[in-house]
Amino acid sequence: MEEPQARNPINRLMWKIYNVLDVPVTFFREKIVEPNQKSYPYYHQKYRRVPTIDTCYTDDYVCRYEANQQFLRDRQVDSQILSILRDRHDHCVHEDYNQREEAKCKDIYEVYEENAANWFCKYGDLGPMPDVVHAFMKQKHRMIWERRHGPIGSGMKEDPYKIKEDD
């Protein structure tokens, strides 16, 4: 701030008091605080990706904890994405309620249903306190099932040892 042009004693005294109080604070803020602040281009903090649970040793509890936290963050992000897709579909249906155009919202609904099925494949049936180890075991069991019986939802393969009876 510039010094005021008026040279009367009261203005000069007020200006000196102002400088005594403001200059150290301004200096501290501009030279120390602002250069050391972390600036994120987004509204949320970005976490680095950590190793997954399949790369952790069984006795490495720090790695298991980090993998579990990463899993919980991923689950929260996927849940929010699913919530946004559900809100978009609900908004489309509510907006077109009077016009009765269901074909307009059909594409949004198909995307939502596909993502809901994928969410359930990954996080469903894990209970209220999901854990990365249980999710990994669920994925392993699903892969074994698909290897033995084919993709889930396609019907089971026929048993090659089953004797076919003619009616």
Automatic annotation (TrEMBL):
PANTHER family of this UniProt entry? NADH DEHYDROGENASE [UBIQUINONE] 1 BETA SUBCOMPLEX SUBUNIT 10, NADH-UBIQUINONE OXIDOREDUCTASE PDSW SUBUNIT
**Family annotation (Pfam families):** NDUFB10
Q: Which UniProt keywords apply?
A: Electron transport, Membrane, Mitochondrion, Mitochondrion inner membrane, Respiratory chain, Transport
Localization recorded for this chain is: Mitochondrion inner membrane
Family that this chain belongs to: Belongs to the complex I NDUFB10 subunit family.
The lineage, from the top, is: Eukaryota, Metazoa, Ecdysozoa, Arthropoda, Hexapoda
Q: Which InterPro entries match?
A: NADH_UbQ_OxRdtase_su10, NDUFB10
Membrane topology per the entry is: Peripheral membrane protein
- Signal peptide residues on this chain, from the entry's feature table: none
What name goes with this protein?
NADH dehydrogenase [ubiquinone] 1 beta subcomplex subunit 10
- Where are the membrane-spanning stretches? none
One GO cellular-component annotation of the UniProt record comes to: respiratory chain complex I
